[in-house]
Amino acid sequence: MNIRLDKLLADSGFGTRSDVKQLVRSGSVSVNGAICKDSGLKIDTDKDNVEVRGKQVDFSEFEYYMLYKPAGIITASRDKKEKTVLDLIESKKRRDLFPVGRLDRDTEGLLLITNDGELSHKLLSPGKHVDKKYIVFITGNPPEDIAEQFKNGVDIGDEKPTKPAILKTYNNIDSLKNTYGETILSDYALECIQNAESDISIYDITITEGRYHEIKRMFEAVDCKVIYLMRYSMGNLTLDPTLNPGNYTKIHRDFIN
Ligand code: URA
Known about the structure:
By secondary structure, the chain is an alpha+beta fold. The radius of gyration is 22 Å and the shape is elongated. The protein has seven helices and 15 strands.
């Protein structure tokens, strides 16, 4: 790919466009071994070697991170007051990363962070019906036919009912652990279970849309309350079981459909 030197440096995390122009003017940047003071120089990323203060710049056009979003962090790229999911990705190089879709502040689990707009569109576009799978703990008395109701779509107060959702019941926490492994429950999940004011029911739910508070509103529609929600899968991507809340791992584009 061909790219201007100042854009390559800015995209690689060396500051704003004017910061990097200053950096280039100061003589700290070399291209193929020679100091370069021309910010507009066209770089061929497949051939040219760019160094800043003698250290090679590792340019990536696209980056992909799988984050285990912890509860308490907002899904945004940046925020003046609050820590965001992007603040958790310490090793990021690109400045144009964003979260693919949104998880509520108190929702945990799989969040893809990238700057690949095309992939994001593919995963989020309503017409593509990409499966998003969650574990959910609720309180209240779910109706016996809840799985049927969710399959038929639920009126959550929007113009249209929700698209069909698949609901699977877990009898207890042990059966959940038998399916997903011992580490499936985070400290926050255990806290939510402990603080529950009445008996909880455990479900696995698959939805294909991404409406605001969709799962919480679906359970509200049947007089139940979500007390814990965790996404473990999106399309062909499954949360890496070795990750803890707040941890992330860099992934390859080929890993995602
Ligand atoms: N549905 C919700 O209610 N919240 C989320 O964070 C994701 C899906």
